[in-house]
Design brief:
The structure is a single chain. The protein starts with a helix and ends in a 6-residue tail after the last helix. By secondary structure, the chain is mostly helical. A hairpin with a 2-residue loop joins strand 1 and strand 2. Strands 1-2 form a two-stranded antiparallel sheet. It has a single domain, classed as Farnesyl Diphosphate Synthase. Keywords: Isoprene biosynthesis, Magnesium, Metal-binding, Transferase. InterPro entries: Isoprenoid_synthase_dom_sf, Polyprenyl_synt, Polyprenyl_synt_CS. Its cofactor is Mg(2+).
Length: about 280
């Protein structure tokens, strides 16, 4: 646990440093509101743990980890505008706090800082660019060509959530100088964790208490969004079983990785198991 907290502190310190370097002051405050308002920091933790698993250090991967967190935060700003959600991470969402225009500008600022962190490595840039294309296709699908089967839902979950998770792990492997086979294996692990995370997120939206969750629930049904519950007619328990299956396959993907740090790998396994049991 102490090692995890050290990694988290490393991420937070670098995140604050990046955000505090923004100008002008208004943009900095808007970005701070989004990027520093809490959050589990799951994606940057995946980046650091993936790097350490294959022999790199957390310090080598922290810029990439912070970058992927900024990309994720930017996507949440836009999600909240689309959904008209006034609450995020237990606080006011960006558009509700500052208005639509400033919120969109803050999303741009987040992406700009993220790509500055990736810019020194062409492989990192390619990984993130591909993830953002997938994310964009997923968001467009959710708004227009909504899935009508479990298979189509799983494709949407891979694009909407799995893609950024995959990028997070691949960035960690790239930071450690890994070969393409290792990059792909860690990417598959994280993509499947992301899909499990999305399925569980859909279930929580359908059944969780909003005060405990830290954001409003029932959005998927109210907005007719293609959640696993809406699309497949699976019960919450059956949907959770699907999430567990993805988690199991994620752990299997780690078996293809030559491990240099067993403790870091163990944390990745714990994460895959946690995302299907989480209550927030």
């Amino acid at each position: 646990m102490e090692r995890l907290e050290r990694r988290r502190a490393l991420i937070e310190a670098r995140l604050v440093e990046v955000v505090d370097g923004l100008e002008p002051d208004t943009l900095r405050e808007e970005v701070r509101h989004t990027a520093l308002s809490g959050g589990k920091r799951v994606r940057p933790m995946v980046t650091l743990l993936a790097c350490e698993t294959v022999g790199g250090s957390a310090e080598e991967a922290v810029d990439f980890g912070v970058g992927i967190e900024l990309v994720h935060s930017a996507s949440l700003v836009i999600d909240d505008i689309i959904d008209r959600s006034e609450l995020r991470r237990g606080t006011t969402s960006a558009w509700a706090e500052f208005g639509y225009g400033p919120a969109i500008v803050s999303s741009d600022g987040l992406l700009g800082e993220a790509f500055a962190l990736f810019s020194a490595d062409p492989d990192a840039m390619q990984v993130v660019a591909e993830a953002m294309v997938e994310l964009g296709v997923g968001e467009a699908t959710e708004l227009s060509a909504k899935p009508e089967s479990e298979a189509e839902y799983m494709t949407l979950a891979r694009r909407k959530t799995g893609a950024l998770f995959r990028a997070a792990a691949e960035l960690g492997a790239i930071a450690a100088g890994s070969d393409p086979v290792t990059v792909e294996a860690l990417g598959e692990y994280a993509e499947r964790v992301g899909i499990a995370f999305q399925i569980r997120d859909d279930v929580l939206d359908a059944v969780a208490d909003p005060d405990e969750l830290g954001k409003p629930t029932g959005h998927d049904a109210a907005l007719e969004r293609p959640s696993v519950v809406q699309v497949t007619d699976l019960s919450a328990d059956e949907a959770n079983d699907r999430a567990r299956a993805e988690s199991d396959r994620a752990i299997e993907a780690l078996d293809r990785v030559e491990v240099a740090d067993q403790a870091a790998r163990d944390y990745l396994v714990e994460l895959a198991e946690f995302v299907v049991k989480r209550e927030r």
